[in-house]
Amino acid sequence: SAYVPDPNDKPSEKCGVLNVTKITEHGKKVRKNWTSSWTVLQGSTLLFAKGQGGGTSWPYYHSGSLPEFLLSLLSNWRPSAKKRPAVSYGCSGLDRASSFGGGQSKPEFTVDLRGGSVDWASKDKSSKKHVIEVKTRQGTELLIQSENDVLINDWYRALQDTISTHAWE
Ligand code: I3S
């Protein structure tokens, strides 16, 4: 039978530009590096992409050491990763082009939200307003922020929904 969209269905993905920084990686504190990032919530995965040009740069989008960065380059060159077109994830290319100046972008990093937590960040985490703190089961902590309070409230709700509907198996 043909697929009939249910008007009550929530969109399965959400995307937009947010300011983001890691604060912890593998349970270890890392230096903040606020970056404006194309952000996609797809299922239980939260993905951050560079805005323009694509590719991976060090140190701007990588809080690890140089050897770790080189390793990440290697793993990005797996044939399986190569086959995936750069535009296969995250809302439409148009959405990205209109809000982030176009160009192809590659995922910079992804986090699995299953079993994680989302909360408003306390004042000691950042001096910025509207800051969400995301903690993952893998020991990554992120701050995401927008000056737009409507937008950030939408993200807060979407992230909360994701965590409550995608259980950790
Ligand atoms: O938590 P911190 O250390 O006060 O975070 C600030 C720093 O990352 C700062 O850069 P330097 O490490 O070069 O000082 C950033 O410019 C600030 O934006 C960070 O604080 P906020 O409150 O904006 O998250």
Outline the structure in words.
This protein is an alpha+beta fold and 169 residues long. The protein is 24% helix and 28% strand. Strands 1, 2, 3, 4, 5, 6, 7 and 8 form an eight-stranded antiparallel β-sheet that branches. Strand 7 and strand 8 (141-145) form a beta hairpin. The chain is globular. Bound molecules: (1S,3S,4S)-1,3,4-triphospho-MYO-inositol. (1S,3S,4S)-1,3,4-triphospho-MYO-inositol binds next to loops.
Secondary structure blueprint with pairings:
Layout (H helix, E strand, L loop, with lengths): L12 E13 L2 E2 L5 E8 L2 E5 L16 H11 L2 H5 L9 H8 L6 E6 L4 E4 L10 E5 L5 E5 L3 H17 L4
Antiparallel strand pairs: 1-2, 1-3, 1-8, 3-4, 4-5, 6-7, 7-8
The protein binds (1S,3S,4S)-1,3,4-triphospho-MYO-inositol (I3S).
The site of (1S,3S,4S)-1,3,4-triphospho-MYO-inositol has 5 residues, from loops.
Salient structural properties:
4 helices, 169 residues, globular, alpha+beta, binds (1S,3S,4S)-1,3,4-triphospho-MYO-inositol
Ions, cofactors and other ligands present here are: (1S,3S,4S)-1,3,4-triphospho-MYO-inositol
Helix content: 10-25%
Largest sheet: 8 strands, antiparallel
The counted number of beta strands is 8
How much strand? 25-35%
Q: What is the residue-averaged pLDDT?
A: 79
Radius of gyration: 16 Å
Can you count the helices?
Answer: 4
User: Termini separation (Å)?
Assistant: 31 Å
Low-confidence parts: 52-63, 81-89
Describe the global form.
globular
Q: Give the oligomeric state.
A: single chain
State the order of secondary-structure elements, H for helix, E for strand.
EEEEHHHEEEEH
Structural class: alpha+beta
Domain PH: 22-164
Organism: Dicentrarchus labrax (European seabass)
Protein name: Rho GTPase-activating protein 12
